């Protein structure tokens, strides 16, 4: 694993954020050591505000004193800058790369937006409706997984974890939280068997272990501080 001093890498984040978690997974995939700084979103640090003055949110990766914001941008940055270190998550082929970027954008547009609404919606009916949106998106992603993996490979990226895996996989811990909040199973093996099996493989992968939030009650308690 690369020494932290070699790359002067610092990550500003919040422990249960899927967007922060995907950056942590990417850094682990590459075997890059980094300093992690937990942010208080109710009292944001001057460092965070100065590094991300536009959105004022995490994650922010600071590499050699230069800040990079937005999780998908950060993952792509790490993949490019450390192309010779560890596996790459984005394909070399231009079409395959564009396809991966399309599905990653789909994930945050459909799954991410619904996830955020579920967190802060007051009405139970709204939470249920948004959970249904996630389930519908996962059904679409079931087909995408079959196409991208060829129906036999373990990950969207083929034999190895790829860009779509990192982006979608960062929500897996929260699917369990939503299930407890709403009472509806999000990732259902009866409805999306390929994705359900993929989720088990992804969470068991070494770069993912210890990253995704596992204590549902702890996450719900943390969420209550913002409601």
Automatic annotation (TrEMBL):
PANTHER family attached to this UniProt entry: GLUTATHIONE S-TRANSFERASE, GLUTATHIONE S-TRANSFERASE, GST, SUPERFAMILY, GST DOMAIN CONTAINING
Organism of derivation: Eleusine coracana subsp. coracana
Enzyme Commission numbers on file: 2.5.1.18
GO cellular component assignments: cytosol
Family: Belongs to the GST superfamily. Tau family.
Entry protein name: Glutathione S-transferase
GO MF entries: glutathione transferase activity
Function: Is involved in the conjugation of reduced glutathione to a wide number of exogenous and endogenous hydrophobic electrophiles.
GN (gene name): gb07290
Coiled coil feature spans: none
Subcellular location: Cytoplasm, Cytosol
Domain of life: Eukaryota
